[in-house]
Structure formats: structure tokens, C-alpha cells
Amino acid sequence: MQPLPVPCPAHLIPDASGTEAFHQTYRQAMADGAVFIAIETDGPRWTVKADTLTAGPGHTVDDTVNDAVRAAITRLIHHREVGADAYTGPVYFMMHNVGNEERARELAAALHAALHGDLEPLNRAAAG
Questions:
Q1: How many other C-beta atoms lie within 10 A of the C-beta of residue 85?
Q2: 124: Cβ–Cβ under 8 A, 6 or more apart, which residues?
Q3: What DSSP character marks residue 54?
Q4: Closest CA to 61 of 36, 95, 91, 29
Q5: How far is CA 124 from the centre of its chain?
Q6: Can you tell me the mean pLDDT for 7-12?
Q7: Which helix (H) or strand (E) holds 92?
Q8: Displacement of CA 93 from its chain's centroid (Å)
Q9: Is the pLDDT of residue 1 over 80?
Q10: Which of 47, 62, 77, 39 has its CA nearest to residue 114?
Q11: What is the pLDDT of residue 2?
Q12: What does the pLDDT look like over 88-123, one tens digit per residue?
């Protein structure tokens, strides 16, 4: 399995649905020293997950980026695009109840870019 490109296009975001797929995707991110990013489903709704711990101590997300990510996820909650139980960082991020796979992939790709310092895709995705 190749490491994900940075930024990762939406169509390459891994689908980590199911316990085995999740563990495999997470272990791969750890082995690559990369930010974990994935989508998963357990029914009709989708979840976006990200974890920066897998990237190791050399990857940092500064406070400005964390604040912007938190604000974007909060906008998505207010627009009812993701569930109110979202995790907004600073290390682990999760957005539940995304309406469909395409939107989950778009949000995951935008979050991945943000966690690498490019906030523009996430700002566009959360503009509402």
C-alpha cells in the first residue's frame, strides 16, 4: 500500500469501514509516519476520522490551524452536515453523520489538507 499523497485527493481517501479495514488503515498510517485519515460507514451515514499521532513527533499542527479546523467543524455542525458529537482536535478529529460517501470523501480530503497547513479546501467545504 502506497502512502497517501499530501494533499490527498478525495477519491484516494481510504474506506476503513469494519474493524479489520480500520486497523489496517491505521497501522499503515503509523508505518508511513503519516496523518491517519479515513472514512467509514456502518449504515446509511458516513464518518470522517483523522489522527495526527500516527505522523509521529515531527508532525505538528499549530494553534492557528487547530482553531480554524475547530471553527470549520463547528460550522458544519451548525449547518447539520455533521453530528454534534464531532471531535474537533487538537490531535483526533471525527465527524459523524455525514450524508453520503462523496461528501465524506470531500470533507476528509479537506481535513487532511488542513492538517498539513492548507486551510483553503476545508474553508470551502465548510462554507455552507
A1: 10
A2: 110
A3: G
A4: 91
A5: 15
A6: 96
A7: strand 92-98
A8: 6
A9: no
A10: 62
A11: 81
A12: 999 999 999 999 999 999 999 999 999 999 999 999
H helices of the chain, in order, are 19-32, 63-78, 101-114, 120-125
CB 77 within 8 A of CB 58: no
> What is the band of 27 on the pLDDT scale with cuts at 50, 70, 90?
very high
> What is the secondary structure of 58-91 as a DSSP string?
T----HHHHHHHHHHHHHHHHTTSS-TT-EE-SS
Question: pLDDT for 30-86, tens place per residue?
Answer: 999 999 999 999 889 999 999 999 999 999 999 999 999 999 999 999 999 999 999
Where do we find the cell 499530501? 6
Contact between residue 123 and residue 68 where contact means Cβ atoms under 8 Å apart: yes
For 69, the grid coordinates are 479546523
Cβ neighbours for 102, distance < 8 A, ≥ 6 positions apart:
10
